[in-house]
């Protein structure tokens, strides 16, 4: 990646982490949390599995379960630390 692409990537990553923390704490309401957790009633999609937000968050924070992520997001200062210090992994799929 070029330097400008890396800056853009880090900016998007930081915004995504901050939004996930906001939603996981419940600050944005019940519907946003249901959407993030994927619990909305819908038809089962066929084909390739879609890339999920929570998979990116797990990858960036190095936390292995959703429960750990949600527990850490409840503490604003701890989540802010995760948001500012997370790095993209070398094995991350950018497609």
Give a verbal description of the structure.
The protein is an all-alpha fold. It has one domain. The chain has 5 helices and no strands. The protein has helices at 3-24, 30-37, 53-61, 66-74, 76-85. Helix 1 packs antiparallel against helix 5 (76-85). The longest helix is centred in the N-terminal third of the chain and has 22 residues, at 3-24. The chain is globular.
How are the elements arranged and paired?
Elements: H1 3-24, H2 30-37, H3 53-61, H4 66-74, H5 76-85
List the main descriptive attributes of the protein structure presented here.
single chain; 95 residues; 61% helix
Short description:
It contains five helices and no strands.
Could you name the ranges where pLDDT drops below 50 across 5 or more consecutive residues?
none
Number of separate structural domains? 1
Category from helices, strands and their pairing:
mainly alpha
**Roughly what fraction of the amino acids lie in strands?**
under 5%
What is the terminal-to-terminal distance?
A: 13 Å
**Beta-strand segment tally:** 0
Our count of helices gives 5
Computed CA radius of gyration, to the nearest angstrom: 14 Å
Mean pLDDT: 78
SSE sequence, one letter per element: HHHHH
